[in-house]
Amino acid sequence: MDTVIIGLPQSGKTTLFNALTLGKSDASGASGSATEMHMGVVKVPDPRLDSLAEVYHPRKVVPAEIRYIDLPGPESMAKSQGISGRYRNILQSATAFLVVVRAFTNDAVAHPTGDLDPARDLETMLNELSFADLEVLERASTRLADQMNKTKPADRPAAIRHKDAVDKARQGLEDGIPVRLQSFTDSERAILVNYQLLTDKKIIAVFNTDEDAADVCITDLGLDPELTRGVGSVSISARIEAELGMMDVKEAAEFRADLELGEPATSQVISASYDTLGLVSFLTVGDDEVRAWSVPGGMPAVDAAGVIHTDFTRGFIRAEVIAYDDFSLCGSMAQGRREGLLRSEGKTYPVRDGDIINFLVNT
Questions:
Q1: What angle do CA 33, 34, 39 make, to 5 degrees?
Q2: For strand 232-236 and strand 202-209, is the pairing parallel, antiparallel, or unpaired?
Q3: Residue 239 is inside which H or E element, if any?
Q4: What are phi and psi of 307, to 5 degrees?
Q5: Distance between CA atoms of residues 249 and 231, nearest Å
Q6: Beta partners for 289?
């Protein structure tokens, strides 16, 4: 899962990135933090994997992963916020966006607009996404209209449906509704997915607060409910979390307890991301590997099998499923089968969090 970190200048994007990745990343681009793109992979904590490893003693344990990408920030507010341009392909391929919103006070780090206003800054970033999509859809609508006269009569109905879908999405955006909240038919969705629209992505607002500040509640900001509907949120002091991330685990835990900070930033952001995206983790086990796989909750078993390997979708026979809690009680697959806790499921079985699944396939 690729999550791109975006935000206005001086919002603390890179500080948050360092907090999430514990300062470990790969950089690309020119030298200097303002012009580098940073990427870091974070393993999703899952205590269930440790318990299963004690049973199977596998050669390796593989948690689910999230790749965070910190794009270079603009040099000034007069320039693009990084929503378009040479990094647009990265934004388009993302699963979700972390929108960093400045909610901290620091006289040494001037706010580009001169005053602190999280509501305004969040609205600015969400509108930037909409403006970028409108630009794409307007160009597409103009191009499709120009091509219409050249279209063969037999192909014209499909061309009209294509343009109608584009115009429908554009009108929704002009009415202030992000693409992810608009209603489309399956055929319209199939057309629009090719445009990889940015407002069709899931969004988690990360309010970068002072160390001892209260959490920011997104519903208390007074923004248009349509603009923020479905947007996840979490409040974090990125500076403190980045500093703790550079300490050894024991020392960081002691400081965290003293400061009453609760869960680390990584855990908080992952939790908010999973909730916002509706993700769950199913598990596969064996002597070679114990592994977690993140998928949308309720994904059909046949599609979940395809996450492991595309050939599993074509050769799917059935899925043997046992809930992690049931496995913990009975201690083994064999005992789970004897107790009727290990069951056979077909292609349409909706995968749930903590399902331990063995896929039977024709290869």
A1: 60
A2: parallel
A3: helix 238-245
A4: -65, -35
A5: 32
A6: 60
